[in-house]
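An example makes the point: we let one protein speak, the chain in one-letter code, the fold tokenised, and here it is:
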Amino acid sequence: MAQPLLKAIQKDDADKIAKLSQKVDINARVQGSTFLIKALTSEECAFAVLEIDGCDVNLCDDEHRSPLTHAVLCQSPALVQALLDRGATVSAQPDGTTPAHWAAEHNELKCLQLLGKSRPACLSEARQDAETPLSLACRGATEAALFLLDKGCLPQCDPRELVERCLRAKLFQVLLRLVELSESDLAPTPGEDSCLHLAVKLGAPPVVVQKLLQKTGLALAGPSAPVDAFGRTPEALQQALQQEQEQEQQRRQQEQQQSREAKKEKQRLEYAASVEASEVTAWLAERGLGHLAEPLYAKGVTRLSQVAQVQAAKVCPEADTAAFVAAQEALNAALPEKPAAKVPVVSSKGYATTGKVDSSKMAKLGKKNPQGDYSLGKVARGSASSTSKGAATNYIKP
């Protein structure tokens, strides 16, 4: 019956869990874990499993993680409280990691508060690698770190390491509190970057730099200023960084300028290629007027049929006007005539159509207007309608 119960847990079926639990050992191992740990991903299912008689709230999975640890990783303070109420202990894994370490690292403040209330010592216990909940929180968990500092969990390692972590994670509020509570003078190790160097390098606010100056008794420049491996004081480092930033900004501006110039050059070449490919260019070149190709192309003249529409005075120097006009006239004579446009006609049924104009029939239906078109007097000026077959038509204006 273990498999049906596991499926019920995976489907978040709390009612079915209660029924199936009577036929299975609730503390049995399943896929390297327990039914309770599997159910912790859903609060409803977890509470259903916790209600089962005999459920062991301290039984760990194959990685030695307790139900409390999984409840923290599931970001559920309610389950943490429920487990503690049922006798769960804040125990450590073989490497010394406790649920408090997980809560601090993942900034689960409410879970951390519940764990600290249950067993205060867990808030300052160190793992085998010397990491404490506070040292883990200084990597980026502001709320957890401030809570731990307020609880008096001072660093057990070199405070300069925590200062560096706070600077790198930009936890400036935590850093100020840490410096205030630390009993160390944060004196730098010779040949290494001091906390002032790190503050300058990582762009800490002036209030943080000032606090570090007060705590260390050092200066940014002068004989009392610390030096890094390159012999630079914090002030000299700051100037070097500003110079690097300015150089980087100039480099980016140059790259942007080069990119814009390259884009313009590409557009110019494409434009020149388009002008060269135009049939108008070849026609002008044959007549010694090739220098007029670009002005004509700029006005959208790309076909010989458009040349006739060009006003010579607008594109030609005075010396070329006569030659261009003569070439226009020769071109117009050589180009085939355009077919006459179809004239809309009002039929005998009163709607407009297109086709050949029968003058004799149209004379009976209407009279010529000043433009020479025929129209019926009953047709409204500029009106439109549809034919009996549904074709949209426009009436001739009288």
